[in-house]
Structure formats: structure tokens, C-alpha cells
Specification:
The chain has 357 residues and is α/β, with parallel strands linked by helices. The protein contains 14 helices and eight strands.
């Protein structure tokens, strides 16, 4: 008999083509009377159109959202929300926009509604990292940051470039894979993980063939939600540590970095986690020992970049990256082995299949 604890995060999920039209009703259900939208600067024209549906309930649009949620972007958002007396935050975009709203709500407590346009899954958690003025990332965990309502409308995703879609999809799958390997892995989270990996990976292959396949877009959103639902219960592992070091420390793109690293970080834990490999293998229809290779094969099938070299990381950075990964270690089933991690990074840099170092 297995003993476990599973932490389920409550949220209202509104999913389907055209469902963004429900925005006004969903804001009203949250009691929003002075709504501030959170987005990146490039998304402002789209947000202005959405905001029109709320009429005089729109207090303003904050477009300071920046990738990795630096405090220098958060502080203007907090100031604006306070000045506007905002009582509800609506995000439009992916994890960057959601991260800004979370950082504001962490301090001020407004309910968050997320209109989701990527597959990152940030909208499903009460977790957020914020990079301080000193460049150090601090991770926060607080239910004030959990979005209360999620709107998944695949029509909003039809024009998202394929490379961005695929990178975001791998980011999503990385949550599910890490959930299997997390400190509090449990059968409920495993159920979400297996179905999330299966649904998302199949959708990504279909999107590589036709990026405007709305059914595939819808499936990918469903897969993103399934994968995201694992994070609060099971936590992060060495995979996220590697991705955070490479992305935050060497200015690599977030989603593509997750994609390149994932087969190799999974292989790093292969021998320590046979049950996890079995679940990942079932999602791909392969044997447990082939689970990391299935993730690597998905890179090619979905058209993703397959190497850190392809993302612009110089080979000379690998030693420093390995050293940084050894500092402030995230939980992992296998001990942090600097030699093995350096070999893992070399394989990822060259774009070779994982070797199980």
C-alpha cells in the first residue's frame, strides 16, 4: 500500500473555441470592478480589443511584463496596480504575463484571471520565481498567486509561430516529467503527468504538420493544463535547475532550453526511477528504458532545436554552467554528480541522443 499526499489546486477552467467571449462574465464572477490587464508590450493591441468588452470596468493595462520576472519589471506593475486601485488582474499571454500578475498579487492580493496563449502551465500554479536587482532568483510559493480562472481558447493560438508553440509545449511536458521524479511524486499527479505527456506530444506532432489545426491547438491546451496540474504537488527537480541556470544565467530562450535539456535530464535519472520511466514510456508507447530517447525523438518530430549550440550557447560556457548547477541544488532522486552533469551538458550542446551518463 502506497502512502502519499497530493496537493490539488482549485481553479475554474473555461476551455473551447470562442470562449474568450466569456471574459466579462468571468470577471464579474470574481467581483472585478477595476480590472488591470497584465501583458508584454507587444501584446497591447490584442489586449486593447479584449478590454473593450469590459467597458468602464477596465482600470488600465500594465505592459511591463518581462521574461523571468525581474523585480525591475514587477515594481512598476505593483505601483500601477496600487495607483489604479485594481481589484482584479487579467493576464494575456504566457508565463511572462502570468508571472507579473502573480508578483503583484503576492503583495496586494488581487484575484487573477488568466487568458492563456502559450503552453507553459504557469497559470496552474501558486509558484513564481522573481529575479532581484542583484540577479538572484528567489522562488515564492503562496496561494495568493494562484489564478482563480483560466480561459483556454484555441482560436487565440492559431497564429502563434510553430517554433514558439513547440518550445512552449516542451516546457509543459517538462513539468509532467519532473513531476514523476519530484520529491512528492504520487499516483494522482502521475495520472495527470502520463495523460499530459501523451496529449501534448501528440498535439505537437500534429501542429508540426499544420500549425493552424484548431483541434491540435485545443488538445495542446488540454495537455498544458494536465501537465501544469502536477507542479504544485510534486515539485521541481534537476531538470528545472539546469534550465534555470542556462536560461537565467546565459540568456538562453526559456522554452527551447527546456526542450533541449529534457531528454538528457530525464536520462540522468533513468536508473533511479524505473516507475517514472514506465509512465513516461506508456505515454509514448515505448519501453521504460527508451523513455528519454522518446523525448529526444520528439524534438525532431516537432521541429524543435535539438542542441544548446543551436540556441547560441558557446561551448566554453559549459564548465561554468556545470559549476552553477551544483550550487543551491533542487531536489533530485540521484545525487548531483558534477562529472555526469558536465557530460550531460556536452551531449545537449552537441545535440546527441541521451547516453544515460
Amino acid at each position: 500500500m502506497q502512502s502519499f499526499t497530493h496537493l490539488a489546486m482549485p481553479a475554474r477552467v473555461v476551455h473551447g473555441a470562442g470562449r474568450v467571449a466569456d471574459l466579462a462574465d468571468e470577471v464579474a464572477a470574481l467581483g472585478g470592478e477595476r480590472v488591470m490587464f497584465c501583458c508584454t508590450e507587444s501584446r497591447v493591441p490584442e489586449v486593447e480589443k479584449l478590454a473593450a468588452a469590459l467597458g468602464d470596468r477596465v482600470a488600465g493595462i500594465c505592459d511591463t511584463a518581462k521574461i523571468f520576472v525581474p523585480l525591475k519589471a514587477v515594481e512598476p506593475g505593483r505601483e500601477m496596480a496600487a495607483e489604479l486601485n485594481a481589484d482584479c488582474l487579467v493576464t494575456y499571454g504566457g508565463g511572462t504575463a502570468v508571472g507579473l500578475a502573480k508578483a503583484i498579487a503576492l503583495e496586494q492580493g488581487q484575484p487573477i484571471l488568466s487568458i492563456v496563449t502559450t503552453y507553459s502551465g504557469s497559470e496552474t500554479t501558486a509558484l513564481q520565481g522573481i529575479i532581484g536587482h542583484d540577479g538572484v532568483r528567489v522562488n515564492y510559493r503562496d496561494t495568493r498567486m494562484l489564478p482563480r480562472t483560466l480561459i483556454y481558447d484555441p482560436e487565440l493560438m492559431l497564429d502563434l509561430p510553430l517554433d514558439v508553440s513547440v518550445a512552449s509545449g516542451f516546457n509543459s511536458i517538462s513539468h509532467a516529467v519532473s513531476s514523476y521524479l519530484g520529491k512528492d511524486a504520487n499516483p494522482v499527479a502521475d495520472m495527470y503527468s502520463e495523460n499530459g505527456i501523451r496529449t501534448m506530444s501528440a498535439a505537437m506532432v500534429k501542429l508540426a504538420q499544420d500549425p493552424r489545426d484548431i483541434d491540435a491547438r485545443s488538445d495542446a491546451m488540454h495537455g498544458a493544463w494536465l501537465c501544469g496540474m502536477t507542479l504544485m504537488s510534486s515539485g521541481t527537480t534537476i531538470h528545472h535547475k539546469i534550465a534555470h541556470v542556462l536560461g537565467g544565467g546565459f540568456d538562453l530562450p526559456h522554452g527551447p532550453t527546456h526542450a533541449v535539456v529534457l531528454p538528457h535530464s530525464t536520462s540522468y535519472n533513468r536508473d533511479q526511477a524505473p516507475d517514472a520511466m514506465a509512465g513516461i514510456g506508456r505515454a509514448f508507447g515505448v519501453s521504460p528504458e527508451d523513455a528519454p530517447d522518446a523525448l529526444f525523438d520528439l524534438l525532431g518530430k516537432s521541429g524543435a532545436v535539438e542542441s544548446l549550440r543551436g540556441l547560441g550557447l558557446p561551448e566554453s560556457a559549459l564548465d561554468e554552467a556545470a559549476d552553477r548547477i551544483m550550487i543551491d541544488r533542487y531536489f533530485n532522486l540521484r545525487d548531483y554528480d558534477r562529472t555526469a552533469i558536465r557530460a550531460l551538458l556536452q551531449d545537449a550542446w552537441e545535440g546527441r541522443p541521451p547516453r544515460g551518463v
